[in-house]
UniProtKB/TrEMBL annotation:
Keywords from the named record: Glycosyltransferase, Transferase
An example molecular function term from Gene Ontology annotations: galactoside 2-alpha-L-fucosyltransferase activity
Record's GO cellular component terms: membrane
Protein name according to UniProt: L-Fucosyltransferase
Short name of any one Pfam family annotated for the protein: Glyco_transf_11
Superkingdom as given in the UniProt entry: Eukaryota
Example GO BP: carbohydrate metabolic process
Amino acid sequence: MIPTAAATRQDLSVGKCCTFDDPKQFISRPEKHLIFDGRYFQSFKYFNHIRLKIRELLKPKDQIFQKAECLLPERHRNDFIICPHIRRGDFQTDDFHQPTDPKFTRAATDFLVDYYRKSHPRVTVAVFGNDVKFVYEVFKDLLDTINLPRKYSVVLTPTLAPEIDLAFTRKFCDVTLITAPSSTFGWWLSYLSKEGSVTYYRNIQETQDKVANEMKEEDFYPPEWIKLRYDNVTGRIDTFF
């Protein structure tokens, strides 16, 4: 442990939320010990080099995994699982963030199901979120028992606790979809999800999300994540490949 008195404090990452303020800029400082004081540190570039260690430290306990398993019916547990994350709540009223949009969410989910069905015969969608009524309205035609056969199966996973959501994504989600582009919980669900999973996220520039003004996308979203764009007129989804 370094005594506080023996270290010099230096501000870092105190301005915009979602940018990388590289600590290496201070490498030539003469002090032996620097303690960085900051506010955000909301960039994977601060810690991606220890991602495996972070996954190990944040691995849910066995009893949490058991609770997560109860959210997915056994008949779907060997399916290819696509996991959209819904963020509404205070995002609808804070006049800053862009909440999940219903049209984008349904269009993006349909797009991903169609894409992954080419390589996986059984695809199921497991939806996370803090607005069950909203989720039901988005996927109503796939949840009502009177509409058979369904295009694909949808499972609602009510948010019981953050650690259960994290355990579920880590165990089951082959694909995650961030529908509210500045949702940090959606971000962490994806970052800590199943090994080898693929993450898609909405293009923040096509929304009214004001976080875009504080964000460098290349600092916030890992390069292997895939950005989706949505055409409000045609309802078409495309990737930025």
